[in-house]
Specification:
14 helices; mainly alpha; single chain; 291 residues
Length: 291
């Protein structure tokens, strides 16, 4: 992977790491489904003018079915599942579970798309997954309360992320990333809007929460999805999905900065393994070593 795309991977990870903090603090006020409806709606409003300016509406019309499937598997359903899970698991733990997405993408790609996994990539996936486990164990304390259903919801979301990455590679290879990002958000909000009417908040959310929802829609969704689909187009789905390994690292760092959380020695070690796993899986260490 070229170094500039690795930097984009880091930027995307930082943005999506912050999204778990925003979901944790706003889901209770808005409710998971309403929150994601607003998030995707704001993202669609931001992206549509750029789409029209670039005259790419015809791309969405031409590839509407695969984009609709991506909207379901990469936005509408998994976003709601994670919004729900953060209520019970917390932002840090939910972001840790998010890091299982590359594993699902690699397995689905191997069986469905017949993608090859070399030994270095396999070692990277295993190393990253071990790092995720250590991060998860290191965050646990006597007050850490989890339940089976939220954990299964988060894992179901990451499985769908893996499906979406392979769908994009299989049916949207070479399709403009702006069209995919805009179309997926538009389809997602159209699918969620009728359902959200049944989950209207009982009281008006605070102004602070509204600002966080705006950040979720503009930065963590609109801008982030352009970066994500750009990475898929340039480095492939298997490498782009490894962004999920870095998300918990940044999720914990943002928690330290804004929520007065801290990192234990075990967390630092787990974070280091996650970074090493990403570097091995994306081929960064191999390429720099050979150079």
């Amino acid at each position: 992977m070229p170094f500039k795309y690795f930097l984009e991977l880091l930027l995307l990870s930082a943005i999506w790491g912050a999204s778990f903090l925003f979901m944790r603090t706003t889901s209770a006020e808005f409710g998971p489904i309403m929150l994601i409806t607003l998030r995707t709606g704001i993202a669609a409003l931001v992206l549509i003018p750029f789409l029209l300016y670039k005259k790419q509406l015809h791309i969405i019309l031409r590839y509407w079915l695969p984009i609709l499937l991506v909207a379901l598997t990469n936005t509408a359903i998994p976003f709601c599942l994670f919004s729900y899970s953060t209520l019970y698991l917390g932002a840090g733990y939910a972001s840790v579970l998010n890091a299982t997405a590359p594993m699902f993408a690699a397995l689905i790609g191997f069986y469905w798309l017949k993608d090859n996994l070399n030994l270095v990539a396999v070692i990277g996936l295993i190393t990253g997954f071990v790092g995720v486990l250590l991060l998860s164990l290191a965050r646990q304390n006597s007050d850490f309360d989890t339940s089976l259903l939220p954990i299964l919801a988060a894992l179901c979301a990451t499985f769908l992320y893996g499906v979406a990455a392979c769908l994009t590679k299989r049916y949207l290879q070479g399709v403009n990333s702006l069209a995919i990002a805009t179309g997926s958000q538009c389809f997602a909000v159209l699918l969620l809007a009728p359902l959200s009417l049944f989950f209207w908040p009982q009281s008006m959310p605070s102004l602070h929460s509204w600002w966080q929802v705006l950040a979720l829609g503009v930065v963590c969704t609109a801008i982030a999805y352009i970066l994500y689909f750009r990475l898929i187009a340039n480095v492939g789905a298997a490498r782009a999905i490894t962004v999920a390994y870095l998300v918990p690292v940044f999720g914990i760092l943002w928690g330290m900065s804004f929520l007065n959380e801290y990192l234990t020695a075990g967390m630092w070690f787990g974070a280091a393994l996650v970074l090493l796993g990403v570097a091995l899986t994306t081929g960064l260490i191999k390429k720099r070593t050979l150079a």
